[in-house]
From TrEMBL:
Keywords: Aminotransferase, Pyridoxal phosphate, Transferase. GO terms for molecular function: alanine-glyoxylate transaminase activity; L-serine-pyruvate transaminase activity. This is Purine catabolism protein PucG. It comes from Rohdeia mirabilis. Transmembrane segments: none annotated. GO terms for biological process: glycine biosynthetic process, by transamination of glyoxylate. The gene is pucG. Substrate binds at R345.
């Protein structure tokens, strides 16, 4: 075959559901010289990654790990380690990713009950409690920030419900970690998983996982081997923990990149980071309203870092996104499931949650839709100034 030319990456403005823009210092960390996965210097990096992850996730106990695969592997890690064949699981399905949780739990051999919520809506814990009445479960699982719908699900009351059901609480924080408050200890979360490519602004490739002491005890008390050898947390912990026993060759440079991404989060300050995401969202929402574009989620349940927008009647949403990509190098996401073809997903995540991104997106949308760009810009500016 003919040898291909060297890659030249196209510069894009990433404002879809992920990946998010990657800061220069994270890219520089990825380009550091590769060292061994058992090198003392790399083991120090692993320890610091673990410590920073626990801080960002609000975990005052338990253990954090970065699974050597994307966020979906974090989901599978939590479920296959906490469930054994015949265990009962209660999973909330309010979008694509809750549906995936239920499927993974089934494949782990669990008996799964699903509590279905209309796409674009959140659920009430009282309704979930009524659904689960007189039953017991090994886990209760839900998505904190549903990327397919743009809903931020409140977690209040779930710990108490899980206790009443004899269950561990599992939470998908792929899109929430680093963008909105996540407090593993205060919210009583037993197993949390995330991804690097959303609000942490690191390339995709690692999945942060945090387990409480109760979840770790459950893993240790298993009576059968974990379904997946690669995702067996007892083996992974032997590598990340004190023994440093070889399990797999970790993606060294990806962990260098995650180390820098986490360091940037803490350098900015978590409260400041959350406030920035919220402010940029308010600016975007005000500009969208001026363009007569309607978000699909009510304001009190809207996810700041990912806004789902109803496509106007008569507009080919995929064709418009192609125009945005070709003419403005701007990437937005399309809808999934029942929202496919009728929805845009606009991301303001991590390093992409800036005034520049807000204004660029609104200006580009105004031009391709032939609407008033100035009105959108002024509305956004007023909201951003508040």
């Amino acid at each position: 075959m003919k040898v291909p030319a060297p890659l030249v990456a196209q510069q894009r403005v990433l404002m879809g559901p992920g990946p998010s823009p990657v800061p220069p210092s994270v890219l520089a960390a990825l380009a550091l010289p590769t060292i061994g996965h058992l090198d003392p210097e790399f083991l120090r990096v692993m320890d610091e990654v673990r410590s920073m992850l626990q801080t960002i996730a609000g975990a005052r106990s338990g253990r954090a790990t970065a699974i050597s695969a994307t966020g979906s592997a974090g989901m599978e890690t939590c479920l296959v380690n906490l469930l054994e064949r015949g265990d009962r699981a209660l999973v909330v399905r309010a979008g694509v990713f809750g549906t995936r949780m239920a499927e993974v739990a089934r494949r782990a051999g669990a008996e799964v009950d699903t509590f279905d919520v209309p796409w674009g809506e959140s659920f009430d814990v009282a309704d979930l409690r009524a659904f689960a009445a007189d039953r017991s479960y090994r886990i209760v699982a839900c998505v904190h920030a549903e990327t397919s719908t743009g809903v931020l699900q409140p977690l209040e009351g779930l710990r108490e419900l899980a206790d009443d059901l004899g269950a561990l609480l599992v939470v998908d924080a792929v899109t929430s970690l680093g963008g909105v408050p996540v407090e593993v200890t205060e919210q009583g979360i037993d197993a949390l998983y995330s991804g690097t490519q959303k609000c942490l602004s690191c390339p995709p490739g690692l999945s942060p996982v945090v387990l409480s002491d109760a979840a770790l005890e459950r893993v240790a008390a298993r009576t059968t081997p974990v379904q997946s050898w690669y995702l067996d947390l007892s083996l992974i912990e032997a590598y990340w923990g004190g023994e440093r026993a070889y399990h797999h060759t970790a993606p060294i440079n990806m962990l260098f990149g995650l180390h820098e991404a986490l360091r940037l989060c803490l350098e900015e300050g978590l409260e400041a980071r959350y406030a920035r995401h919220a402010r940029m969202a308010r600016g975007l929402w005000a500009g969208l309203e001026a363009l007569d574009l309607a978000p699909r989620v009510v304001p009190e349940r809207r996810l700041p870092q990912l806004t789902t927008v109803a496509v106007p009647d008569g507009v080919d949403e995929a064709a418009l996104r192609r125009r945005l990509l070709n003419e403005f190098d701007l990437e937005l996401g399309g809808g999934l499931g029942p929202m496919k073809g009728t929805t845009w997903r606009i991301g303001l995540m991590g390093a992409g949650a800036t005034e520049r991104h807000v204004h660029l997106c609104l200006d580009a949308l105004a031009k391709v839709l032939e609407r008033d760009a100035r009105a959108a810009t002024e509305a956004a500016a007023r909201a951003l100034a508040e």
